[in-house]
């Protein structure tokens, strides 16, 4: 892993920037990394594989990545125009959020997605059941325009293919000399911690079980190692009983209420070929 870490250009709840070294160190060697839940891409940005297949179920995210890969300078120039003082107000934010929810123009959505990400509350990416982006205004003094981070992502994206598919379809694309890293929406630590709405459909406990099954099958039947990160709770300890589980020993404070935050542990579950 390179000495200087690269930050993602998006703010992202559950982002892996602080854990990137540990995750990359745990990944078995391979020529290609597949990420079915790429999110903001911190592991991608801070790893060194020959090629990448980066997937997410959120089409706005993947469309943005594809655009940034194809025409980075135009995108950066146009996106920067939204980062002006007159757009950093509650009225401007909600007008632009409504514009984002109404438009069907992909490039316009690409531009507004970055604006909403940097001006919205706490870097959340959340949709209602109708598919409308519904994160409230963040009230930041001067939202940061991540020009250098956009350029770094665009440069490395030359090695990547981006897809927007259900995770089980991404597993089917894995071949020999590939390793899979999965960072799904985490299982709740309690019944009130159900922040899984990265897409409008959420991520269920049944899908967590299916992901673990797919991971074990990939390792056992196809010889493809799979690494999964998640909360370290009794459910996941049971879920990943056939994997090599390690405590990340890193605490993440999670709560939408800043006055009510509690630290929770995370884990890595590694499914090794012929060992699960």
TrEMBL record:
Its EC number is 2.1.1.72. Pfam families: MethyltransfD12. It catalyses: a 2'-deoxyadenosine in DNA + S-adenosyl-L-methionine = an N(6)-methyl-2'-deoxyadenosine in DNA + S-adenosyl-L-homocysteine + H(+). This is Site-specific DNA-methyltransferase (adenine-specific). Belongs to the N(4)/N(6)-methyltransferase family. Coiled coil: none annotated. Gene3D superfamilies: Adenine-specific Methyltransferase, Domain 2, Vaccinia Virus protein VP39. GO terms for molecular function: site-specific DNA-methyltransferase (adenine-specific) activity. Keywords: Methyltransferase, S-adenosyl-L-methionine, Transferase. InterPro entries: Ade_MeTrfase_dom_2, DNA_methylase_N6_adenine_CS, M_m6A_EcoRV, MeTrfase_D12, SAM-dependent_MTases_sf. GO terms for biological process: methylation. The lineage of its organism: Bacteria, Pseudomonadati, Pseudomonadota, Gammaproteobacteria, Alteromonadales. The keyword DNA damage does not apply.
């Amino acid at each position: 892993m390179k000495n200087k870490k690269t930050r993602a250009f998006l703010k992202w709840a559950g982002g892996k920037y602080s854990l990137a070294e540990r995750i990359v160190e745990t990944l078995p060697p391979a020529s290609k990394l597949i990420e079915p839940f790429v999110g903001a891409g911190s592991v991608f940005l801070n790893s060194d594989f020959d090629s990448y297949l980066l997937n997410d179920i959120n089409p706005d995210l993947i469309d943005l990545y594809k655009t940034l890969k194809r025409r980075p300078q135009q995108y950066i120039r146009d996106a920067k125009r939204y980062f002006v003082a007159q757009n950093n107000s509650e009225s401007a934010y909600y007008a632009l959020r409504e514009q984002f929810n109404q438009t069907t123009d992909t490039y316009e959505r690409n531009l507004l997605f970055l604006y909403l990400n940097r001006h919205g509350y706490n870097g959340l990416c959340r949709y209602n059941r109708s598919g409308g982006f519904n994160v409230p205004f963040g009230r930041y003094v001067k939202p940061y325009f991540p020009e250098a981070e956009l350029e770094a992502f665009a440069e490395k994206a030359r090695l990547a293919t981006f897809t927007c598919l259900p995770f089980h379809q991404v597993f089917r694309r894995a071949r020999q000399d590939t390793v899979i890293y999965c960072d799904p929406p985490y299982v709740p630590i309690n019944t009130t911690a159900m922040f899984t709405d990265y897409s409008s459909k959420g991520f269920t406990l049944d899908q967590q079980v299916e992901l673990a099954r797919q991971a074990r099958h990939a390792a056992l039947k196809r010889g493809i190692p799979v690494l999964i990160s998640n909360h370290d709770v009794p459910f996941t300890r049971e879920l990943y009983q056939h994997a090599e589980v390690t405590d990340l020993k890193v605490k993440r404070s999670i709560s939408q209420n800043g006055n009510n935050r509690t630290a929770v542990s995370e884990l890595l579950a590694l499914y090794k070929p012929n060992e699960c």
